[in-house]
Amino acid sequence: VQLQASGGGLVQPGGSLTLSCAASGDTVDDYAIGWFRQAPGKKREGISSMGDGDGTLFYDSTVRGRFTISSDRAKNTVYLQMNSLKPEDTAVYYCAARTQSYGLGYRVWDRDDEYTYWGQGTQVTVSS
Fold it and tell me: How many CB atoms neighbour CB 109 within 10 A?
């Protein structure tokens, strides 16, 4: 599967953005999809994931309640709706695909070494 992330940009604190991860070559339903981000000078961190076959959605504590992951099967796309953005959300955001874990996603969802396919990053900058 090939993944293409898009939707990043410059937004003011408190604003919203929606990132898209468009898949080609295969269907997103066959994979668990994760969103990661990497800020300058920091390691890449997992922030959300879905698609492990049991409906569970995973969120890092820093984004829970503000970000929402979803998918559109017809468009073969996974989204990350980001609300109430903060300056500390500034980072390059990546989407990635891994093997589905069927109830065991909690063990691996935020481990970038578990993901096989990666899209290019999209820059999100939160600043006034």
Answer: 26
Please say whether the beta carbons of 100 and 32 come within 8 A. Answer: yes
Q: Which residue has the tokens 């999809």?
A: 33
Q: How far apart are CA 108 and CA 111, in angstroms?
A: 5
Mind listing the pLDDT tens digit for each residue in 17-70? 999 999 999 999 999 999 999 999 999 999 999 999 888 999 999 999 999 999
Give the integer Cα–Cα distance in Å for 118 and 121: 9
Residue owning tokens 């990053």: 121
Q: In whole angstroms, give the CA distance from residue 14 to residue 26.
A: 36
